[in-house]
Each structure stands twice: as C-alpha cells, then as structure tokens.
Amino acid sequence: MDLLQAIGNTSIVRLRKVVPPDCAAVLVKLEWENPTGSMKDRMANAVITRAEADGRLKPGDTVVEYTGGSTGASLAMVCAARGYRIRIVTSDAFSREKLDHMAALGAELTLVPSEGGRTTRKLILGMIEAARTLSREPHTYWTDQLNNRDSIAGYFPLGEEIWSQTGGKVDAFVHCVGTAASSRGVATVLKRHKPGVRIVVVEPTESSVLGGGPAGPHKIEGVGIGYTPPLWDPSLVDEIAAVATDDAKEMARRLACEEGLLAGTSSGANVIAAIELARRLGPGGTVVTLLVDSGLKYLSTDVYRRP
Q1: Domains defined along the chain, listed by start
Q2: Of residues 17, 29, 40, 194, which has the active-site annotation?
C-alpha cells in the first residue's frame, strides 16, 4: 500500500463519560488515525494530487503554504512522499510540537511573530503575505489553503465515512471553522444523503465573527481566523455555536482523563458544541463531531502542561 492510501477510514466511537444523561448519542471520528495525526492529511492529499493532475504542480517544483501547523505537517508528509520541496510560513502562536513536526518532515520554516502567542486577524494576514512573497519565486506552487477549493473535495470521503459508519442514522454534524473546507465538504455529502441533517459550525467566543461578533485574539489553534473565510458557504450551515478557549481546553483535558481520548483544543470545542446540541435533541438522536488531531501535538502547551 502507498502511504497516501493510509489516509482516511478513521474509527468512530461513542462518548460515554462526558455526555450527560438524557442526551442524544455523541459520536467522534478519531482523525488522529491519519498518518500525521490530523484530519488535514485529507486536504493535503487532495490539493497536491489535483494540482499534479492539471499541471499546476510539476516535477521539481516547490510547494509553499501558510499554516498553524497541522496543514503544514500534512503537506510536508505528502510532499516527502511525492518528492517536492516545501516551504512553510508559520508562527510562534502555534505549539512547538507542530513546528518540530513540520521541520522533521522536511519543511523549511519561516516564522511570523505573534502577539503574545495568540491567533489574531493581523497574524493570519501577515502569514498570508509572507507566503505570497515566497510564491513569486520560479517553479513554485502556492496551495493557498484559505482559497483552494480542492481542499473541499478532500473532505468528501470523510462525509461518506460518517454516513456509512452511522448507517445513515446521523441527525447532526458539528465542527469548528478554520478555512471552512472540512465543514463544507462533510456538509455537502451529508445533506446530499439526508437534506434535513443539521450542520452546526463552531468558532471561538473571543472571535465569533461568523456569528456577528467582533474579531479578537484566542488560543484555539487552527480555527477562528478573525474574518469570514473565502470558502465559507452559509447555505450549508444551520447554526453557529461559540465556545470559549478556556472551556475548550478544559474539555480536551476531560476527554483525556475521562474517555481516554487525547485530543487538541479545537476537538474540545467540537465536543462542547456537540453536547449542547445533543441536550436539545434528546435521547434517540445521533450527533457526530471530529477529534481533529492528536493531543500529542499540544503536550508542551497549557492544555496539558499545568503550571
């Protein structure tokens, strides 16, 4: 089997301890089973193989991207497997493990300084401009994740997996928004199968711009970019939920201690929003969400390292 064939077909399990009584079932996809420990392997494979297929990416080219880390590790893995040089623009706002992971897979890193280690609109825009500068060099392909529609198709198989693994008994799908590609890809598939399925997207309370609030700094890595992402499609979304950074971190810790599931901060936010919806749906319903990546990517952060 080729390495890239190991992407996808991740397990789905039911949460038993953190979900209160009299709620719908909450099922989580264990996306850390992908080769780099993140769901982003799905989009990385899609954007590289599709660019190869239509000639945007040619042998000997360099791939460039701006990323908080998981996308960068996924792209670095795919580029290593396919034989491309990769240059990543990232920041000290993201965990040391993520930066080290990208470098270990051969990525050449450019760091853009953050404001106190927090994700802000200014930081994201600064990273994009740095990537744009690198992309002007000859024989360079910029994957440009916030604008690249190929990434949406990378999540169609995830939607099909959810539909198949639940036997079509899925009432709602809940997921955080970064680029919006993953929620859009899954929603497209699920609504095709079941138009009445409820799609709930999650963003940080501190920067709830999709819900009409102001942009602000937060510490939920990989989501909440501070403005509406270009791939956002509100027609597929039934509800927008906001979860505070501290609550997301606490739920990540609870998932580890009570469920044995070691996940990152955005996964904690996903579960909080899924439980809130499960309360409203009541027994007999089924809510699906994602454990986006492994908590091993956050062991040096305050999610798991107590003072």
Answers
A1: 3-33+157-298 (3.40.50.1100), 40-142 (3.40.50.1100)
A2: 40
